[in-house]
Amino acid sequence: MPNQPALSRRRALRTLFCSSAALGLNLHPEAQAQQSSASLDLLAIGDFGTGAADQRSVAAAMAAFCRASGVKPAALLLLGDNFYSSRSEPFTVNAKRWRSDIEDMYPASDFACPMPAILGNHDYHDNAGGEKVQLQYGKSGRRWHMPAKWYRMDLGGAKPLLTLLFVDSNFPEVSGGKNKKTGAPRGCLTAAEVAQQQQWLEEQLAGPRGVFTVVAGHHPLYSNGSHGDTPALIKAWDSLFEKARVHTYLCGHDHDLQHLELQDRFTSHVLSGGGGAGIRALKGAAKRAMPYGLATHGFSHLALRPDSLVISHHDTAGSLLHRFTKRADGRVEMI
User: Checking DSSP bridges between strand 151-155 and strand 162-166, what pairing results, if any?
Assistant: First the structure.
């Protein structure tokens, strides 16, 4: 993997590591910056990349939230489906939509932090080679950060408060197959990449980590939304997350906001798919109880302190919709 440019201007990270599919298990230091280990705030959105009014509304709501609450985010987590649809202009690193839909949509004046991103199904499907363009775009020191299809960040000091593991959930059985209109194969991970990522993920979870561990992917393992559960991811990751005591799996794909707690499970499942694409009604609430679920546009805020991870959902009006606390020992406290 090519060396990434220094990110010392970014205020959010104390230590940042990345790992590429090509290099498999190797971790490479990316940058160092000042960040207090006493507290850490992050924002998260998924399913946002339309360039339309709803995406703008969510972006404005996040900026207003930060100003009103005094939050200076350490990172803006982009949970996939970063770019929907093709346009008349080819999707390249010089495409105008990078400026309109990313740089100006989430300006540095409001979000002076890295924007670590992962790939969703639309990032593979809507623009031929779109996943390669997104991987390439972050190589010139921009806030956009996607050094590989899967990678790691450690935030919050020399002894990290948070370990973030970003994964690509586009397994062949999840996002592959053929385009229903054209019959052409749909882009996704290869079987070899799935195996490489699994080995990497298992080694990361077996090794030293921060006080809290969050895994971020695009597709949910469990969801009461329109797409429902993803059996291939449950098979690959559910028992692994439980054994490793992953505090939260954070994702999108379903266009809503959810918080699920499964019986006898350590990991909390949080969906933040209300970033700008059209919302969809939840379908599974009747068969599976959950602390929260709502089909609405909005974003999520993760507030880390030495003894707690507080996750909250907010809508475009600035209203607090739901909030809970995850303790390091796995306890969940509703607020």
Answer: antiparallel
Q: Which of 20-34, 57-71, 150-164, 291-305 has the lowest mean pLDDT?
A: 20-34
pLDDT confidence of 139, banded at 50, 70, 90? confident
Q: What domains are there in the chain, each with its CATH number?
A: 15-334 (3.60.21.10)
Q: What DSSP letter does each residue of 233-280 carry, written as one string? A: HIIIIIHHHHHHT--EEEE-SSSSEEEE--TT-S-EEEEE--SSSPP-
C-alpha span between 29 and 17 (Å, rounded): 5
This prediction has a pTM of: 0.89
Phi-psi region of 221 (alpha: psi -120 to 50; beta: other; left: phi over 0): alpha
Strand order in the sheet with 332-334: 75-78, 40-45, 298-305, 308-315, 320-326, 332-334
Q: Which amino acid is present at 81?
A: D
8-state DSSP, 4: P
Other C-beta atoms within 10 Å of 272: how many? Answer: 29
Note whether 59 and 105 are within 8 A (CB): yes
- Per DSSP, what are the bridge partners of residue 31? 16
| Residue whose structure tokens are 């992050």 | 42
User: Which 3 state secondary structure label does DSSP give 210?
Assistant: coil
Q: Is residue 268 over pLDDT 70?
A: yes
Would you give the distance in Å from CA 270 to the centre of its chain? 11
